[in-house]
Amino acid sequence: MNMKTNLIVRSAVLAVVLVVTAMACNRSPYAGYEKTASGVYIKYHQKGEEGQKPQLNDVVSVSMIYELKDTVLFNSDSLTEALRFPVIEPTFQGDLYAALTMLNVGDSVSIVFPADSFYMATAGLETLPEFVHAGEPMYFHVKLNSFQTEAEIQAEQHAMLEQMKADEQMALNAFIEENQAKINQKSSGLIMLDEKTGKGSLPKEGDVLKLNFSVGTLDGQMLFSTFDRNEPMDVTFGEQFDTQGFDEGIGYIKKGGRSKLIVPSNLAFDSMGRGQLVAPYTTLIYDVEVLNIRSKEEVARENELKQKEEAAKAEQAKQQEANKISSYLQKNGITVKPTASGLYYVETEAGTGAQAAAGKEVNVHYTLYNIEGKKLQSSLDSGQPFKFTLGQGQVIQGWDEGIALMKAGGKATLVLPSSLAYGATQRGEDIPPYSPLVFEVQLIDVSE
Questions:
Q1: Contact criterion met (CB below 8 Å) for 168 and 160
Q2: Which pLDDT value is given to residue 27?
Q3: pLDDT given at position 15
Q4: CA distance 369 to 166
Q5: Terminal CA-to-CA distance of the chain, rounded, Å?
Q6: What are the distances in angstroms from CA 285 to CA 173, 216, 241, 282?
Q7: pTM over 0.70
Q8: How far from the centroid of its chain's Cα atoms is residue 445's Cα?
Q9: Within the chain, what is the greatest distance between any pair of CA atoms?
Q10: Which of 14, 314, 361, 403 has the fewest CB atoms in 10 Å of its CB?
């Protein structure tokens, strides 16, 4: 064999080696599935007509089943409506979203990838569900029925909003025509219907108005009302409180007056709406009654007087606290001495388990009473014990100290002076400043 022939043979052998190596690198670990350049392992069952494929932000409509081995986890046939969702950036190489950008309408395929990639990357779980094993294959069987491009969706949304805008104007025009004799339309577009004329002067900027009001839509849907609850609200005129139309309208109502404010959407939530509550281009109707108007100075004096009254009441409670605790102890036959901090610890059942200590996690059932014996709260009612780490300041001081004296399985009564509870701070109506508290506690378990 001459040198030229030898070179030709060696080149041919090298070419074969390279082809075999490439085939080995692209070999699919899933039988019957082909690996694409984007890392998708795919098997075609039916092909649709070649055409435009979904892109990022397009919305696809699909039929889909996904499963682990022979266990079906989801089947879109069980849904009452078509399964639709937007195409997003792939969450991992070879995921469902990468596969969707390869499909034509009518394509029916199966794709496969490790289940842990789906649950950890796509679903965003921190740990795998118990029924999933790491590396286990997950199969998605998908048929692309149709899709809308991002541009088509935006055009559809624009057309829908324009129709809603036109519908609002039509309804508003009909309302104006029907109530022409009674309405008072302002230059801003706000419409007012006075039902009762008030007395005195109109509110000035900074005045506080005590209002009863309701708000609904022009077609009769009620959204909120203080009338039903008989809970008037204080609103400072000149400060933003609700919609632009409402904030303007209350400035035209005198004390004792009542008016309806018809607020077009451009003075309310316009094309944005307000979540599920108020649709875009919705006219709102307010029924407003002004019960009182006070100046800033009057309100300041009221607040000052209220603070003085509360401070006097708190001081009185502080002076009476020791007597209240003494009376409770005597009434309940408690003779134990307080700890250095003032805690009265009464063991009612000795625990036999692990000793509670700072840094350990404890699980506690409790019932809270005020010092007069009124039950305020109990974890037993909900069946949900309270879990926390002892000695970390996660609970009131009296709990950190009292629970540390217990063993798992034990029960005790903790009588806490306010200094070990909430001190000078009010905690709702039932726990005013300087309130001693009584807890019946059960230490369920202790863990590291």
A1: no
A2: 61
A3: 41
A4: 60
A5: 80
A6: 14, 5, 16, 10
A7: no
A8: 32
A9: 120
A10: 14
